[in-house]
Amino acid sequence: MLDRNAPPYLSAALWRGLKGRCPSCGDGKLLHSYLSVTPHCPSCGEPYGHLRADDMPPWLTVFVVAHLVIPPMLYLEQLYQPNVWAQAIGWSVLSLALTLALLPRAKGAVLALMWSLKSEGTERG
Ligand SMILES: [Zn+2]
């Protein structure tokens, strides 16, 4: 029998966080602007204002963007040696776009992970 009040699995909570949705219900928005955490879920009322993701979302974003951009950049350089200015502009724009797209998703996933682990979200013990 499915318990409707049971917390979601970690994978479901992470997926909801990646989509910017409340890890608990999946309906309400987790971020009310680009990176600001909503104090409470507008749908289920779950509190999120106390969670502080700190530096984890930017570190995660840099890790992912670097692994997405650097291999094709090196591969393209090996094959065609394109113009340096074209590469500098192109790879910079791609890196910036990926960073801006992935940063709120990384923050949502980190907040969902903290929520799932019942992390207090503060540095106090
Ligand atoms: Zn909710």
UniProtKB/TrEMBL annotation:
Pfam families: DUF983
InterPro entries the record matches: DUF983
Name listed for the protein in its UniProt record: Zinc-finger protein
Organism of derivation: Oceanibaculum pacificum
